[in-house]
Design goal:
Blueprint: H1 2-12, H2 19-30, H3 38-45, H4 49-58, E1 70-75, H5 78-82, H6 85-96, E2 109-114, E3 126-128, E4 131-133, H7 141-146
Parallel strand pairs: 1-2
Antiparallel strand pairs: 1-3, 3-4
Helix pairs in contact: 1-2, 1-3, 3-4
The structure holds FE2/S2 (inorganic) cluster.
């Protein structure tokens, strides 16, 4: 896996080594940052494993476990909060039987939250993978989730 990580980093790195940028690139390609690739990232960036592990543990958007086939993110920003994202999140937790950061049994969905998605005019906002949904009502979730197998 080291060669794969090295190739990813070669594509995205320019200028001084940027640990966060490197970790985001690895996550984009692999779906997560497996702990076992941390020493390889450190070696490729000519830094220490501790520094890479520190950045990895600091940013909540970086994940060390593989997500489900589809990643659901509920926006918890101010506008979405004022327009019912809490109800949306609770409905998803009940429906999926998963808490924030957890993956459903069978690996179909991972549930997560996010800060403002830039879609405030039609809040509350929900993202499934790269699909953005606005003005989402809890009653629409069943139909919406059926699109993702
Ligand atoms: S606060 Fe949710 S899209 Fe801006």
């Amino acid at each position: 896996m080291y060669q794969q990580v090295k190739a990813i980093l070669a594509e995205v790195q320019s200028g001084p080594p940027n640990i966060l940028k490197a970790l985001l690139a690895v996550q984009e390609r692999l779906g997560h940052v497996p702990v076992e690739v941390v020493p390889g990232i450190a070696r490729a960036l000519e830094t220490t494993t501790a520094q890479v592990a520190g950045v990895l543990s600091y940013y909540p958007d970086l994940r060390v476990t593989a997500p489900g086939r589809h990643l659901i993110r509920v926006c918890m920003g101010e506008s979405c909060y004022a327009n019912g994202c809490g109800r949306l999140l609770r409905e998803l937790q009940d429906r999926l039987r998963a808490d924030v950061g957890e993956t459903t049994s069978g690996g179909r969905f991972t549930l997560d939250t996010m800060s403002c998605a830039g879609n405030c005019a039609v809040s509350p906002t929900l993202l499934v993978d790269r699909d953005l949904y606005g003005r989402v009502l809890p009653s629409q979730l069943e139909t919406l989730l059926e699109r993702y197998r």
